[in-house]
Amino acid sequence: MSILFDPQNFIKESVEDIKRKVGSNVAVIAVSGGVDSSVAAALATRALQNNVHCIFVDTGLMRKNEAQNVQALMSKAGVSVQIIDASSLFLSALKGVSNPEKKRKIIGKLFIKVFEAEAKKRKAKFLVQGTIAPDWIESGAGLRDTIKSHHNVGGLPKKMGMKLVEPLRELYKDEVRKVASALGLPQQIVNRQPFPGPGLAVRIIGAVSKKKLQIIREACAIVEEEIEKAAQSGQIQRPWQYFAVLLPLKSVGVLGDARAYGYTVAIRAVESIDGMTAKPSPLPAELLETISNRITRQLKRQVNRVVYDTTSKPPATIEWE
Ligand code: XMP
Q1: Residue 194 confidence (pLDDT) above 80
Q2: Can you name the CATH fold of 203-308?
Q3: Which atom of ligand 1 has the smallest separation from the CA of 321?
Q4: Going by C-beta distance under 8 Å and a sequence separation of 6 or more, which residues neighbour residue 274?
Q5: Looking at the predicted structure, is the pLDDT value of residue 154 above 80?
Q6: How far is ligand 1, taken at its centre, from the CA of residue 211, in Å?
């Protein structure tokens, strides 16, 4: 990053550039709530106003209230986000599929199909993307792509027949965050923890179902709430990423006087710089116990065991799939 980077100047130039490129045509952008696509959407909105359609494809694999939260946060910054509910399409396409790579491919392809249909409906000629410098510098050659075929909402294919506009192409993440703050995007967006494109589908080990999605959505919300509360009170430093994983493993427990047989949830919290390597966060035992108690209480009939993942990356990866 350059110490001379001036976000206000960047905003001014980039808005002019988008205006010049798109003219009076219609543009679309896929928004995920991540900082890159949010900044690109905010710049495009400043440049094009109603001529840019910011689309959030709700795959049904999002976190608790995520689509509505992103919409509300973006509207605070003057960006109107349209939610397209495609959850039933994704759920049926994923039915019975347990191979992680197959799940990722199905989600990636369907995402493109849904988004492309929305772009056609709106007669869009331009596609705005939040591609940043590391996305194209490292593309293909990095460790990541050989380990998992990452699906990223920013990574839409060129063959869509729209002209690409990539206002953040020369920026690094820290510069994008500066632009986000200068644009008045809320802190929840500026400092949002990474969330994978395939969403909660890669946090359910094995086949995805409506019931399992409900469990993992609740467990992830509890992990986020408790960790964020502990960070706000100064008990811990907020980890780089933190979430829950639903394992396909049932174990014996007790519920009242009776035998229970429920699922196991793993908690994952890591420290990292760029996601390429990671270390487990040293969360205090009391915090882990609070999270565990809440998960087993709120998901009483489904989950009766909670474990903490103490592995680094490598040899593990951050997500379990
Ligand atoms: P892994 O699990 O590969 O994750 O160690 C490294 C970082 O990338 C995120 N991740 C993804 N992000 N599409 C994304 O946009 C994906 O398919 C994907 N898979 C993993 C993960 O959450 C972590 O921050």
Answers
A1: yes
A2: GMP Synthetase; Chain A, domain 3 (3.30.300)
A3: 2
A4: 134
A5: no
A6: 24
